[in-house]
């Protein structure tokens, strides 16, 4: 960031401006491997910072509680139509502020406090809002969890079916935050049908892959699709709920007035732009490149002696179990950060360590693919990870500094979309 590009911010609040400038440099110079992060385009950034910020718009297009909504209605309607077209759904609501509120709206639409709900256990790769105990969804509802097999790291759909038929949950969530394998939506749909449950696909991580045809779509199998709009979709930090027409009224009522007031119109505009970009042929290439890079990186890590949960990946995400390396995930993640490689420490299935000091790290390929890195670069990335983990075990800060210099050099050759740095 420079004063010439953002003169008002620098003039008004130079301290805050300096923090933003530092973050721009950090994002430009580091190899970002957190699978829930990405780079948005300059167009999405611009749309997210427009005068739409000035509007308050409780209600829905044509049914607002405020006047002066003529343009806002068109912006939201455009985003809704683009979401419906891209994901092949009957109805879309683009107002949820983020993924967790979107999921909470699903509970409000279909369940009562105390009802049984079912989702993947958080330590197995699920999400807090799928009925996990420390979440409001686990406090207000009775959460039961399924997991993965200890021998394969894969979902056991027979076990999921047995649990669903025994518990008869009101809601079943499929999807999560650390699932490296393809979700069988058709299998979940059959289970939900037998159990008499509403089926919700939380595709926050893989929405961009679905839009680009690199992961099967849940649209024909589930009652509701919940997703964030960033991550692989490369939009602003918002969310969407999509559903069959029969559930449209319940979903809309749950979002507003059930949980929220006025939508963030500037975010809605950014979502509309991102959905337009995701409908282009170039995005199809991007989505498949994300998966190709992840598979190539997983293969390179396996060759270097890393233990990967489920043995690899089908999507954008890789979960590394560092138990065999004798380096805890938190120590490895912090060492990788000093090497200019940004990951997050993460529990692995059946992890004997605590969540704040787990055995694994979670990595993904959306951001590096957005910068233009390809499968030919993945062995180098795997080498950097291997060298960094080895340096962490030895406490070798010089090795980490050397890797960071190499990372910085490569990142300079692949500028990040949307960043104002050359």
Automatic annotation (TrEMBL):
Its cofactor is pyridoxal 5'-phosphate. It comes from the Bacteria. The record marks 230 as: Plays an important role in substrate specificity. One of its GO terms (molecular function) is glycine hydroxymethyltransferase activity. (6S)-5,6,7,8-tetrahydrofolate binds at residues 122, 126-128, 245. It catalyses: (6R)-5,10-methylene-5,6,7,8-tetrahydrofolate + glycine + H2O = (6S)-5,6,7,8-tetrahydrofolate + L-serine. Residues 11-385 form the Serine hydroxymethyltransferase-like domain. Keywords: Amino-acid biosynthesis, Cytoplasm, One-carbon metabolism, Pyridoxal phosphate, Transferase. It is found in: Cytoplasm. Pathway: Amino-acid biosynthesis; glycine biosynthesis; glycine from L-serine: step 1/1; One-carbon metabolism; tetrahydrofolate interconversion. The modification N6-(pyridoxal phosphate)lysine is found at residue 231. Its EC number is 2.1.2.1. Homodimer. Belongs to the SHMT family. Catalyzes the reversible interconversion of serine and glycine with tetrahydrofolate (THF) serving as the one-carbon carrier. This reaction serves as the major source of one-carbon groups required for the biosynthesis of purines, thymidylate, methionine, and other important biomolecules. Also exhibits THF-independent aldolase activity toward beta-hydroxyamino acids, producing glycine and aldehydes, via a retro-aldol mechanism. This is Serine hydroxymethyltransferase.
């Amino acid at each position: 960031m420079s004063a010439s590009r953002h003169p008002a911010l620098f003039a008004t609040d130079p301290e805050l401006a300096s923090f933003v400038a530092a973050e721009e440099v950090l994002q430009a110079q580091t190899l970002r491997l957190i699978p829930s992060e990405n780079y948005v385009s300059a167009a999405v950034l611009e749309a997210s910072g427009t005068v739409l910020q000035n509007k308050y718009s409780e209600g829905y297009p044509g049914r607002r509680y405020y006047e002066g909504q003529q343009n806002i209605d068109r912006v939201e309607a455009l985003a809704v139509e683009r979401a419906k077209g891209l994901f092949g759904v009957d109805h879309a609501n683009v107002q949820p502020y983020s993924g967790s509120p979107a999921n909470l709206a699903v509970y409000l639409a279909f369940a009562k406090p105390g009802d049984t709900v079912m989702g993947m256990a958080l330590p197995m790769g699920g999400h807090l809002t799928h009925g996990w105990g420390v979440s409001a969804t686990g406090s207000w509802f009775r959460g039961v969890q399924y997991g993965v097999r200890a021998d394969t790291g894969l979902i056991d759909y027979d076990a999921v079916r047995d649990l669903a038929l025994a518990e008869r949950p009101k809601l079943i969530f499929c999807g999560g935050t650390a699932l490296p394998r393809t979700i069988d939506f058709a299998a979940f749909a059959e289970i939900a049908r037998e159990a008499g449950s509403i089926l919700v696909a939380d595709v926050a991580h893989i929405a961009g892959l679905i839009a680009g045809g690199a992961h099967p779509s849940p649209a024909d199998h589930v009652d509701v699709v919940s997703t964030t709009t960033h991550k692989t979709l490369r939009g602003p930090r918002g969310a969407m709920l999509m559903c069959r027409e029969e559930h449209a009224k319940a979903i809309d009522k749950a979002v507003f007035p059930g949980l929220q007031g006025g939508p963030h119109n500037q975010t809605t505009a950014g979502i509309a732009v991102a959905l337009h970009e995701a409908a282009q042929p170039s995005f199809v290439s991007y989505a498949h490149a994300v998966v190709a890079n992840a598979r190539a990186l997983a293969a390179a890590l396996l060759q270097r002696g890393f233990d990967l949960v489920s043995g690899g990946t089908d999507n954008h995400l890789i979960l590394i179990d560092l138990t065999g390396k004798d380096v805890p995930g938190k120590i490895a993640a912090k060492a990788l950060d000093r090497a200019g490689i940004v990951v997050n420490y993460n529990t692995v299935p059946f992890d004997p360590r605590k969540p704040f000091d787990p055995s694994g790290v979670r990595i993904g390929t959306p951001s590096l693919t957005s910068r233009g890195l390809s499968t030919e670069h993945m062995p180098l990335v795997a080498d950097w990870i291997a060298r960094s983990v080895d340096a962490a075990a030895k406490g070798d800060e010089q090795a980490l500094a050397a890797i960071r210099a190499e990372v910085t050099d490569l990142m300079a050759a692949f500028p990040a979309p949307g960043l104002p740095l050359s």
